[in-house]
Each structure stands twice: as structure tokens, then as C-alpha cells.
Write a structure and sequence with these properties.
Elements (H helix, E strand, L loop, with lengths): L9 H135 L1
Organism: Pleodorina starrii
Protein name: ABC transmembrane type-1 domain-containing protein
Keywords: Membrane, Transmembrane, Transmembrane helix
């Protein structure tokens, strides 16, 4: 190859060009891959944040469901307690009614006994009156004779 005056030979020019292009790619290459890696890391971080937000939302939904279930259980327990109280009240009312009926029966029995006693007394009085009448009649007969 012929070297022109003031310029290096052609092989030297080609070598210099190669070095400069390698240097350019060397300086540009890692920067672009570095930015790509940074972008990928940012995307991964965003995805992780989204996953965390979704997990938090799921946890909140689960907590709300648990609270609703607890409220339903409390309502069911309250209803059962109310039913038990109503049953107890009904049983108490039935017992009171039975006691009242027993008292009424006792009163009726007492009244019947009193009536029987009164009847017996009346019968005794009638018998006494009859006896007195008989005695009077006997006395009259004796006086007449």
C-alpha cells in the first residue's frame, strides 16, 4: 500500500477506525445494557408492588369476609338466645297457668267441703228440730192424758 504524505498508511487507518468503533461500542454498549437492566429492574419492582397491592387487597377482602362471618355468627347466637328466652317465658307462663288451675281446683274443693259441712249442719238442725217437735208432742200427749 502506498502511504500518502501527511497521512498514515491504509492499514493504520483501518486499525484506527476499528479501535474507534470498538471504543464507541464499548462505551455505548454497557450504557444501553445498563439502562435496559435498570428498566427491567424497575419493571420487576413495579410488578412486585402490584403483587403486594393485590395481596393487601386480598387480605382486606378476607378480613372483611371474616368480620361478616363473625357478625352473622353473633346474630345467630342472639337469635338463639332470644328463642331460648321466649321458650323459657312460655314455660313459665305454662307453669303459672298450671299453678292457677291447681289453686282454682283447691278452692273448688274447699267450697265443696264447706257446702257439705253446711248441709250436714242443716241436717243436724233439722234433726234437732224434729226431736224437739217429737218431745213437744209427747209432752202434749202426756198432758192430755
Amino acid at each position: 500500500m502506498v502511504a500518502l504524505p501527511g497521512l498514515p498508511p491504509a492499514t493504520e487507518c483501518i486499525r484506527m477506525q476499528r479501535h474507534s468503533s470498538k471504543a464507541k461500542t464499548k462505551t455505548k454498549g454497557p450504557v444501553t445494557t445498563h439502562t435496559l437492566l435498570l428498566l427491567l429492574l424497575l419493571l420487576l419492582l413495579l410488578l412486585l408492588l402490584l403483587l403486594l397491592l393485590l395481596l393487601l387487597l386480598l387480605l382486606l377482602l378476607l378480613l372483611l369476609l371474616l368480620l361478616l362471618l363473625l357478625l352473622l355468627l353473633l346474630l345467630l347466637l342472639l337469635l338463639l338466645l332470644l328463642l331460648l328466652l321466649l321458650l323459657l317465658l312460655l314455660l313459665l307462663l305454662l307453669l303459672l297457668l298450671l299453678l292457677l288451675l291447681l289453686l282454682l281446683l283447691l278452692l273448688l274443693l274447699l267450697l265443696l267441703l264447706l257446702l257439705l259441712l253446711l248441709l250436714l249442719l242443716l241436717l243436724l238442725l233439722l234433726l234437732l228440730l224434729l226431736l224437739l217437735l217429737l218431745l213437744l208432742l209427747l209432752l202434749l200427749l202426756l198432758l192430755l192424758l
